[in-house]
Design goal:
This protein is mainly β and 127 residues long. 0% of the residues lie in helices and 50% in strands. Strands 2, 4, 5, 6, 9, 10 and 11 form a seven-stranded mixed beta sheet that branches.
């Protein structure tokens, strides 16, 4: 019932920046947290960054700390992922996810907690 639409992916050189966007739409849904996950070929989908709306708490996987930043709009229906100093290891399909129930900050990386997922946007970083 909730649709998530990602945009902003593309092909870039190592060291470049990209900003991904995710817009949530639907009828009468709750939104407690949103996150970004990514999946490279042959690998499991992994957590990248998440934000809990109640207090603005953010969490990042170690490999992107200091390079990526997650943020959202005032309406809490849009989330962004600013990606700087991109590396070839960042190449993956990036998915936006939405949690419709209260969530502990420590649980933000748990993909099973999210209720809705977007179709993904491809990010390719070349050397």
């Amino acid at each position: 019932q909730v649709q998530l639409a990602e945009s902003g992916g593309g092909l870039v050189q190592a060291g470049d920046s990209l900003r991904l966007s995710c817009a949530a739409s639907g009828s009468r849904f709750s939104n407690y947290a949103m996150g970004w996950f990514r999946q490279a070929p042959g690998k499991e989908r992994e957590f990248v960054a998440g934000i809990r709306w109640s207090d603005g708490y953010t969490k990042y996987t170690d490999s992107v700390k200091g390079r990526f930043a997650i943020s959202g709009g005032n309406a809490k229906t849009t989330v962004y992922l600013q990606m700087n100093s991109l590396k070839s290891e960042d190449t993956a399909i990036y998915y936006c996810a939405l949690e419709g129930h209260p969530i502990a900050a420590e649980s933000l990386p748990e993909r099973s907690r999210y209720d809705y997922w977007g179709q993904g946007t491809q990010v390719t970083v070349s050397s």
